[in-house]
């Protein structure tokens, strides 16, 4: 009787053993993937250097570092005396060339001048118009404005300094949106796709969590940058990813170290 019971119990025991073995193998894997892919990076924002195309002395500075500005806001003014004189000269040349062109057009219509003389008057008029346009553009360069809404991250000049052409006067940052560049090992790339959710945490902000998404995945592998540490030092090839994070309260600042968890 006892033998019969043992025989009947064998399939049940075998099933329990298989389930236990599966649990031992599967459960750790479930928990290892639940945490997502971890990486570290630095907070960055869209930046642009603001410069002028003229060489002139700084007359006024209307903003300082950390100031919030709006598109078109005047940030600084440069001495415009030279470019104003150039504009006036260009305007006088344009007016004279226009008069000559109009007279030449009438004379050519009555066959009083040759085609060559008329073409020369027209070419001089076109050239004068171009020079006036350039002078007007350079005149505008004396007023330095913000190209879009943002925050002044750097100021490079003071009142009275001589600004050089194309030398940065300010660095403007769009901190309404931040991004964190991270590097993911090749073996984990199959788990990552464009648009995946990610959580960004900042040690300096008591591990405050910011929700973001993957907005860029490099198509080419590269060697691990010297300033990036991966969990597995044997993996040398990584892919660069960018995680974009809304930052409406401007809490995230450029240069802050951040930890990223790609949710899977």
In what order do the strands lie side by side in the largest sheet? 1-8-12-10-9-13
Give a short account of the largest sheet: 6 strands, antiparallel, barrel
Report the helical percentage: 25-40%
Q: Which overall shape is indicated by the principal axes computed on the Cα atoms?
A: elongated
Total strand segments? 13
CATH topology group of the domain at 80-141? Helix Hairpins
* N/C terminus separation: 53 Å
Number of helices: 3
Radius of gyration of CA atoms, rounded to a whole number: 34 Å
Q: What's the mean pLDDT score? A: 86
Beta content comes to 25-35%
Which segments are poorly predicted (pLDDT under 50) over 5 or more consecutive residues? 20-34
Could you give the order of the helices and strands? HEEEEHHEEEEEEEEE
CATH superfamily of the domain at 80-141: Helix hairpin bin
**CATH class bucket of the domain at 80-141:** Mainly Alpha
- CATH architecture grouping of the domain at 80-141: Orthogonal Bundle
Structural class: alpha+beta
SSE topology:
Blueprint: H1 2-34, E1 37-51, E2 56-61, E3 68-69, E4 74-78, H2 81-109, H3 115-140, E5 143-145, E6 150-155, E7 162-163, E8 168-185, E9 197-202, E10 208-217, E11 222-223, E12 237-246, E13 257-262
Antiparallel strand pairs: 1-8, 1-13, 2-4, 2-7, 3-6, 4-5, 6-8, 8-12, 9-10, 9-13, 10-12, 11-12
Helix pairs in contact: 2-3
